[in-house]
## 1
Amino acid sequence: MLRVGGCTAMTLLTLFYATLLGMIAKVSADAYPYSTTWVPKPSSLPQKSEDKQIGTNSCGTGSNQTSMCQNLYINSATDFCLWGGPGPVAKGVGEWEREVVSYCTKSGRGTRLIPDGTLKSVHFVKTPHYVQVSGLGSFDKMFFTNAGGGGELDPHGPDEMGNPRGGLVFSNAFGHGLMQVHEWNSFMDDKSYFL
């Protein structure tokens, strides 16, 4: 396996493409008009935000490891969520992409919690225009295997319904309170992540 400065080729390639896609999303944000912006309060989110969505956006405030919540939060290095498989069997990211659910570092959002020992490193970047979190981990407890070599998740997907269908992302990192992030990308495999 090729390594550069302790990073695998997959990690470097993922970071390169994620940075490139982040720049493209910034330039093309107006190309995808949204008719709905959800206010991220438990009482205001719909049960489902897209047709044929397998999970929910009305997640409540508890946390449990069988939650089907499909809302992510990215606020800081200690307060963020990642997509993971709903289980009970582990699959590759590409096999789960329509059905992934939220795993968060903090409780109280109706999501699953990232299992102890999963995250091996966390790198958080905040600019005036975007935030990102990336790092290494062992995502078998979040039902991801190395099958297919990883995958990319975004709010569009092949049919503009998103991968996962109905997945919503929120952040308070921009100083305006909690708000919906319309353009986002997530790259994951069984050992690295980038959101």
## 2
Amino acid sequence: MIAATTMVAVPVSAGAAVVDLVCPATTATIGFAPPLTLTPRTTTVTISSGVANLCLDTSGQTPAVQSGTFTGQLTTTMSCVTAGNTPGTATFSWNLADGTHANSSSSVSLTADVAGEIVVTGTVTGGRFAGATLLGVFDVTSTNALNLCLLGQGVSTAALRGPLTFAGS
């Protein structure tokens, strides 16, 4: 069920790729069309108003990333309690330390669990951090999600909050 939950720490195993960028204060709005119900169906998922803040850029690229914005879209089979793992795309616009901007494009997949967590994974396909793996582990908050799903009205939007990491570029 999409509901508020606590943030889960993602351990980094030995031999894992070196982290290039971590933005712990990342938020976005996620939209579902048609709205999510208890019945799985083909749904277009749109990530909008994405903001990545408090970024720590350890990539060695200069100027360093300080923050950024992003959007994304994919189509998958999804319900209030399940999500497919269908690839889509995301684009990032980075605010750099010298006041300029850089961009990244990526392929992304989304998975969700009953506890209200959405995990976005992908690979940066172009621009800054090309070749890096991205990982976002987001808590999901939606007002009255349980009631909307149980009553069949559906969930059309939710808020995402959590860390966004890029590694191995």
## 3
Amino acid sequence: MRAPFRFPDDLLALQEAWLRTYADLAQAPADSGSTVLRRRLIALSGRLCTHPYWTAPTGWRAGGVELRRAAAAAAAAAAAAAAAAAAHSPTAAAAGRETSCTSRPANPPTEGGD
């Protein structure tokens, strides 16, 4: 098994921004004026391709896919952490108690059936 790639934080941040921009562009309606998103995607692509990390002997082919995977995993972990934090907030807990469909009865039945 090959050792995992170690990417600089700024390169990971660039790839995460590229993934977010690409997702935003994919979700944008055709008539929404997506020029800003397309230009941002092009600029981020240029910055990704010319990052000093790629001048190392391993090059783009060796790490490009791994960079995209690492950035997607980091973005997913951040989204999961945000969702977990929101679910554990006092406001969310109170809302969950009000709308829970798995609530228990106030007086559970006893084994004797009394």
